[in-house]
């Protein structure tokens, strides 16, 4: 569902922008959902230079189909028991009727990553990506070359947490992951960035 940011989400985005204000971004890719695009604008508004934002559907959140807007709390479950696999068994999570599976989201985010790495004009650039929880998890899962069973390995990313990824000679390496509070955050020797509404950073 394409819902806008709430006030707390705007606050987090602005705080992220303050933390990244010393990073000079050359370009931003954002999910085409309203809350991601607004997050991108709020983050970049804190910087000193005007940064173009390109919307890309491959970065949008998982589609929940018929489950959109329904409660998934264990004591108020309004969806099928299939949802229990969302965190407990991601490899076998088939998704909602009319929605997407994790495998499908992983495939489209992998397509985006391979495309991005192949763009010679982006070499030596700082690129900010603004995406969503599941999309971000699959991006990192692809970078780690890990199986879907390890989708939630480590921890679930917080809203507006930052991950830094370096791209060198066509290879991607995660330098830091899931930074939640980033006052006076600075980055050395980086080329490309991703942010996650996830603020996610590529280099």
N/C terminus separation: 31 Å
Placed side by side, the strands forming the largest sheet appear as 2-1-3-6-4-5
**Compute the gyration radius: what is it?**
16 Å
- The percentage of residues in β strands lies in 15-25%
Point out poorly predicted stretches: 181-203
Helix tally equals 5
Mean pLDDT, nearest integer? 83
Report the helical percentage.
25-40%
What is the string of helix and strand elements? HEHEHHEHEEE
Give the CA-based shape. Answer: globular
The major pleated sheet works out as: 6 strands, mixed
Structural class: alpha/beta
Number of strands: 6
Q: Could you outline the blueprint of secondary structure elements for this entry?
A:
Layout: H1 7-19, E1 27-30, H2 34-45, E2 53-55, H3 85-88, H4 102-117, E3 127-130, H5 133-143, E4 162-168, E5 171-179, E6 199-202
Parallel strand pairs: 1-2, 1-3, 4-6
Antiparallel strand pairs: 3-6, 4-5
Please tell me about this protein's structure.
- The chain has helices at 7-19, 34-45, 85-88, 102-117, 133-143, and strands at residues 27-30, 53-55, 127-130, 162-168, 171-179, 199-202.
- The longest helix is centred in the middle third of the chain and has 16 residues, at 102-117.
- The protein is of the alpha/beta class.
- Strands 2-1-3-6-4-5 form a six-stranded mixed beta sheet.
- Helix 2 links the parallel strand 1 (27-30) and strand 2 (53-55).
- The radius of gyration is 16 Å and the shape is globular.
- The protein has five helices and six strands, in the order αβαβααβαβββ.
- The protein is 28% helix and 15% strand.
């Amino acid at each position: 569902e394409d819902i806008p940011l709430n006030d707390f989400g705007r606050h987090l985005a602005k705080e992220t922008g303050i933390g990244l204000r010393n990073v000079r971004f050359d370009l931003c890719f954002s999910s085409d959902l309203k809350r991601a695009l607004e997050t991108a604008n709020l983050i970049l508004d804190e910087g000193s230079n005007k940064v173009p934002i390109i919307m890309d559907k491959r970065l949008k959140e998982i589609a929940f189909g018929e489950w959109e807007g329904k409660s998934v709390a264990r004591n108020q479950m309004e969806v099928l028991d299939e949802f229990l696999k969302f965190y407990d068994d991601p490899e076998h999570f088939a998704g909602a009727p009319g929605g997407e599976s994790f495998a499908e989201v992983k495939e489209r985010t992998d397509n985006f990553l391979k495309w991005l790495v192949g763009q010679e004009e982006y070499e030596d650039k700082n690129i900010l990506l603004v995406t969503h929880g599941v999309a971000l998890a699959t991006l990192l899962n692809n970078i780690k070359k890990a199986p879907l069973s390890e989708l939630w390995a480590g921890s679930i990313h917080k809203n507006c947490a930052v991950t830094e990824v370096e791209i060198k000679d066509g290879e991607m390496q995660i330098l830091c992951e899931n930074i939640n509070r980033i006052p006076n955050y600075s980055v050395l020797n980086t080329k490309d960035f991703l942010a996650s509404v996830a603020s996610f950073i590529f280099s």
